[in-house]
Amino acid sequence: MTDIPNVEKVASAGVTFELASTSSAGDDLVGKTAIVTGSSSGIGLECARQLLARGLSKLILAVRDEKKGAIARDDLASGWDLKPGAIEVWHLDYSSYDSITSFADRAKVLETLDIVVLNAGIYRIPRVILPTGHEEDIQVNYLSTALLTILLLPILDVKKHPGTKPGRLTVVSSSVAAWSRFKLPQDGRPLLATLDEAIRDRGLRPPSAILYLETPWTAVLG
Ligand SMILES: NC(=O)c1ccc[n+]([C@@H]2O[C@H](COP(=O)([O-])OP(=O)(O)OC[C@H]3O[C@@H](n4cnc5c(N)ncnc54)[C@H](OP(=O)(O)O)[C@@H]3O)[C@@H](O)[C@H]2O)c1
Question: Looking at the whole model, is its pTM more than 0.90?
Fold first, then answer.
């Protein structure tokens, strides 16, 4: 690992993480637009709040429960002097491919798009097989997150705020992805089909490594 000055390092389960320095206030996001998924609660809601604290001009709360999204929007808006329509609530359900593609189509009409934070995710103890045929954790944390990434990257590319740095897409993952391991199938069968079969037919939990995208998919476009 390359030594970077002024970067705090934290060791966990044998893996060293570098924490980038952040500031919680400022106006460097004035004029910019961001999408945050899973932003009606938890890390996504706090991320949305911090983007607004840095002057963000337009925020899309991407949520599966629009009532919760509206509550989050009102909560966020109460702290700032925002223009009307500065915070919008858009429906996004990772258990449906139609919902993901409709969401991405909707993003094409945004004037600019500078920041995407794909934060929505779950860790469910009882196994649930979704209509897509995949177990819910794998569907939400991995497959749907990857699909939305693929659909939004070209939009980020063409919709970046004029005259500024390229857009940025960040996936919120887990340290679990850094240290857990699973065996690849030895018989040449596709990994996903093998996992689906083990989870559906033999009742196994999905391996932790694949529950979260394995790499910090921070894509900087240029
Ligand atoms: N907190 C931790 O210690 C921790 C540790 C490791 C990883 N993470 C990751 O960090 C991210 C945020 O977690 P959090 O702790 O803030 O949890 P959280 O409060 O439960 O937030 C998760 C968000 O994801 C949304 N979501 C779940 N399933 C969805 C679906 N099918 N379609 C669209 N949105 C969906 C939830 O929406 P609803 O409100 O409608 O349920 C919620 O807004 C997740 O990706 C999680 O895996 C967190």
Answer: no
Strands (E), 46-123: 58-63, 87-91, 115-118
DSSP string computed for 5-36: TT-EEEEETTEEEEEPP--S--STTTT-EEEE
**Domains of the chain, with CATH numbers?**
24-174+184-220 (3.40.50.720)
**CB of 144 shorter than 6 A to ligand 1:** no
> Quick one: which atom of ligand 1 is closest to the CA of 176?
6
Closest residue CA from atom 36 of ligand 1: 38
Token pair 């993480």 is at which residue? Answer: 17
Task: Identify the residue whose C-alpha is closest to ligand 1 atom 47.
Answer: 121
* Alpha carbon distance 9, 167 (integer Å): 26
Q: Is 60 in the pocket of ligand 1 (CB under 6 A)?
A: no
Q: pLDDT digit string (tens) for 55-107?
A: 999 999 999 999 999 999 999 999 778 888 999 999 999 999 999 999 999 99
Closest CA to 203 of 120, 143, 129, 101: 129
